[in-house]
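Entry 14. Ran structure prediction on the chain below.
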Amino acid sequence: MKITPSDYIELETLLAPLASSYRQAVIDRPYHTPMRLRWDLLWSLPYADRAGWFDRVYKYANDTHIDTALRSIVSKF
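Output, structure tokens:
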């Protein structure tokens, strides 16, 4: 995973309060792919919370790296 440990921890902290929303989305939207649900979760964060994180991470990583981090984080939900 190319995401730095500090950025990973920040993302995990941002997403932790949304764990129950994610679990409910998995139940309510079984027709969506797991990847779609992960990214919907990420984009559901308020802009002010995610903008700085994205600005920093996109300087050294791409969507594939971010998805790897997301997959790891939601597997703990």
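The chain has five helices and no strands. Will compare against last week's run tomorrow.
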